[in-house]
Amino acid sequence: MDRNDAFREAMGRFAGAVNIITTEEDGLPSGLIATAVCSLSFDPPSVLVCVNKSASSHDTILRRGIFAVNLLSPALSNVARRFQSQKGPDRFEQKYWVAGRTGAPLLVGAPMALDCKLSHTYDGFSHSILIGVVTDVQLGEGDSHNSLLWQGRRYHKPMEFVDLIRRPADVQMILEEMLF
Q1: Poorest-pLDDT segment among 8-12, 66-70, 174-178
Q2: How far apart are CA 63 and CA 171, in angstroms?
Q3: SS3 of residue 39 by DSSP
Q4: Torsion angle, CA of 84/28/19/114, rounded to 10 degrees?
Q5: SS3 state of residue 143
Q6: What are the pLDDT digits (tens) for 119-159?
Q7: Could you tell me which residues are beta bridge partners of residue 37?
């Protein structure tokens, strides 16, 4: 296995939260799936998002200077599948999206959505590293706190450790894994 393939395999072993990064231009929504998203600062509230330069929404985000980070829950895995199978505005089912303060699409029912203004862009080789200052935060209601995860080229649903140990069949497996 060459270095690039090994690196891709290694990075695939990290579990990452699945986010839909959105923007709009001329009234048309645009977006992509990203797992390289993290908080950057609390003053001002800001996030870091890595976007592949070949992604269809990359240049639109740079031109418009706005984007939203929409965290997906396991219940919203259909949105991720739609983004994988469709292109352009067809990725967006109108009834699930509303315009945020900046105009970027926010996903109704997402565990959280951050509406951002692009502050800085840095070269990250194949990706652009985008710094967004958060202009608005939308928090989901009820039991929408879980994140949909991407790991090993598959979607996963997180499970709390406490829930695992309540099931006797899983206790032995957990103990064996903890003891390495």
Answers
A1: 174-178
A2: 52
A3: strand
A4: -170
A5: coil
A6: 999 999 999 999 999 999 999 986 667 899 999 999 999 87
A7: 49
Q: Are 116 and 66 in contact (CB under 8 A)?
A: yes
Nearest-angstrom CA–CA distance, 93 and 107:
10
User: DSSP letters of 96-118?
Assistant: GEEE-TTS-EEETT-SEEEEEEE
* N-term to C-term CA, the chain: 27
The average pLDDT across 95-104 equals: 97
Beta-bridged to residue 20, according to DSSP, are 33, 70
pTM over 0.70: yes
Rounded Cα distance, 52 and 97, in Å: 23
Instruction: Please state, in angstroms and rounded to a whole number, the distance separating the CA atoms of residues 134 and 67.
Output: 10
Tracing tokens 């993290």 back to the chain, one arrives at 38
Query: How far apart (Å, rounded) are the C-alpha atoms in residues 128 and 12?
Result: 20
* Residue of 58, 13, 18 lying closest to 34 (CA atoms): 18
| Whether residue 169 has pLDDT greater than 70 | no
Residue 105 zone, left/alpha/beta (φ > 0; ψ -120 to 50; rest): beta
